[in-house]
Design brief:
There is one protein chain. The protein is globular, with a radius of gyration of 20 Å. The protein contains eight helices and 14 strands. A hairpin with a 5-residue loop joins strand 13 and strand 14. Helix 1 packs parallel to helix 5 and helix 1 packs parallel to helix 8. The protein is an alpha/beta fold and 334 residues long.
């Protein structure tokens, strides 16, 4: 029996683990993590499928394949009878700018999603904006999606172990291969100094009258989920501050309510901070790790998604599964 360990229980780890179960139905698969559910950065994410143009893999071809595979994965759930349970829904909305027409276009998103068009003049006038696009996309809310994946994994016989790792070497004797989805933890676990925190702060509010998502000039966003709306945000490079900042909170609130005044009536449920695991090139690759002890370990890395972990997790995980097959001497389907 093949013994597989998945390190990390955020959206990338859980997605990888469930896809590995599909690919290796007879394998023993264990998730190892020291944080779960609400303690992961995935829980802070709004989960809208909208790739940033800085999101990239080793090349444009693989980046576009990740994005297409991820979208198809979510659309398959959306067309199922368990979409609500999984926290996946169709999401429509706008990207606006008062300053730059290039901000509202997205060459990675446009060829993939159900609908993408320029705003009409009537829409621009309604929102008092100069440039804008309208899109119909998909959203996965992690407060439902993570528990859904966890239940799916355990029902298929997967094991979940709470464990802090100082080194992947600790797994060398017990597992045939490791899928490393440790996110920001990879900075220490793999000695990867290219992994950098990108601090994000948000409000979670209740405002059921808001039906569309909105992005307004860079980092102002309003993203309706199932149970709440995410208001953001910040994008603070190399910041390790996990505490809520009152100055950031004031800025976010003012920007969002200035754009959509009805939000002043919203019920604030919580404020949250997450450190996005940013890496200039998302790392999805094989490595035969060799340690000073003489031990070796087959590893497939899948981390560094920045603020696009929820959106891209299925695509990079499909790729990671194909690399696991290669390392175990099986035919790759990539």
């Amino acid at each position: 029996m093949v013994r597989i360990a998945v390190v990390g229980a955020g959206v990338v780890g859980l997605t990888s683990a469930t896809l590995l179960q599909e690919a290796f139905p007879k394998a023993s698969i264990t998730i190892l993590a020291d944080r779960f559910g609400e303690d992961t950065v995935s829980d802070v994410a709004a989960g809208l499928y909208r790739p940033g143009l800085q999101f990239q893999g080793q090349n444009q071809e693989i980046t576009k394949k990740w994005l297409r595979d991820a979208y198809d994965y979510y659309m398959k759930i959306l067309d199922s009878d368990y979409a609500d349970e999984a926290g996946v829904k169709r999401a429509s909305g706008y990207v606006f700018s008062m300053n730059n027409p290039k901000i509202v276009r997205n060459f990675l998103m446009e060829p993939v999603v159900e609908e993408f068009r320029m705003c009409t003049q009537e829409e621009l006038d309604q929102y008092r904006m100069k440039y804008g696009t309208y899109a119909v996309s998909v959203l996965a809310e992690c407060r439902r999606f993570l528990p859904f994946l966890t239940r799916k994994f355990e029902e298929q016989g997967g094991r979940i172990v709470k464990r802090f790792l100082n080194s992947l070497e600790e797994l060398a004797d017990d597992y045939d291969i490791v899928c490393n989805c440790s996110g920001f933890g990879a900075k220490d676990l793999c000695g990867d100094n290219l992994v950098t925190p990108m601090r994000g702060q948000v409000f979670k509010v209740r405002a059921p009258w808001v039906k569309h998502f909105y992005y307004v000039d860079y980092d102002t966003y309003i993203l309706p989920g199932f149970d709440c709306i995410t208001l953001g945000g910040t994008r603070q490079f190399d910041s390790y501050n996990t505490e809520v900042c009152k100055h950031d909170a004031q800025s976010i609130w003012e920007r969002c309510t200035n754009f959509l005044p009805s939000l002043k009536k919203a019920e604030i449920l919580k404020e949250a901070v997450g450190l996005r695991p940013y890496r200039s090139i998302v790392r999805v690759e094989k490595e035969l790790m060799k340690f000073d002890s003489g031990k070796t370990l087959k590893v497939v890395h899948n981390y560094g998604h920045g603020g696009y972990g929820v959106m891209a997790a299925p695509g990079t995980s499909i790729h990671a599964v194909s690399l696991v097959k290669e390392m175990l001497g099986m035919q790759s389907k990539l």
